Give the backbone structure.
Amino acid sequence: MSELGDLYHENFRKLRPYFPVLALCGVATMVFVLFAFLVMPRALDPRVLYFPPADPLDAKPVAGKPIPPMDVAAMLAGSPELVAAGKSEYAIQCQSCHGPEGKGNGPAGLALNPRPRNFTVPDGWKTGYKITDIYHTLSEGLGAVMPAFDVLSPEKRFALAHYVQSLGGFNHGPEDATAVAFLNQNYHLSEGGREPNRVSVPFMMAYLAEREQPAGAIPLPPESDGSDEARLLRRAVADPARVARTLERAAGWQVSSASLAEIALAGSPANGVSAAVGTLSRTQWEQLRTSLLEHLSRKNQP
Ligand code: HEC
């Protein structure tokens, strides 16, 4: 034992000075693995970089803000302030794709097809490089990749358009009067207006699902009920749930037997009313109307 023990102790003593180095190597390896396999792939993943992680479809419904009337001529003419405002907005919204100098070579733009527009040259523009054109591009987006920036205020869109032009050292030419008139009218610029309300898709789906709730069903009397009224109801109503829905949506059937007949016959049999109603007499229509009204008043009682 003592021989082996001595050997062990001797080696241990020899290696001792290297322990801190070994520990450091271990930590370095762990940090490397962490970055190489967990942090960097996520950081470089374009989905993580350029798209907000939250599901945009879950956005809360918001009421559209009023848009104050604006001086379109001044907006088209531009000013150093407008260009400066456009510059700071550009750095936030556009630079990642279009690049700091507008050459279409931002980090997020390199992998895109088509590539982001190069603002420094006059070739390749699809909508155009006039202020009105760029305003239009910003409002509507372009193709599958260039997003619409219609959440930005009209003033910010003008500011961005001027800044985009300032990046190109070529002559952008005069604005076209027809295009200006169209822009003004289409986006309600000089008269002002209100942004459209925004509702999220899940919200809208929930709303529609609620609206589409079946309106209950017309209760049909059992076969054992041999009264004229019961027989008539069973004969006229082919699909109780559909008839209930039809009546809920149709306006004015309550008013007279003639209007009930008109509504029932117009959509039969898709509206749930049996085709047999074609042979009902005026008195029978009146009776049917009374039965349906009774059902309705029963249903609406608390
Ligand atoms: C996600 C990347 C991306 C972002 C962010 C982006 N763009 Fe683009 N943009 C593109 C692509 C791609 C094209 C080219 C589309 C095509 O050719 O069909 C384009 C084209 C354009 C065009 C050229 C329209 C034409 O007539 O050809 C303009 C102007 C423009 N972008 C302005 C902007 C401005 C201003 C912003 C910031 C508010 C912005 N873009 C943000 C990707 C982007």
About this structure: The chain has a mean pLDDT of 86.
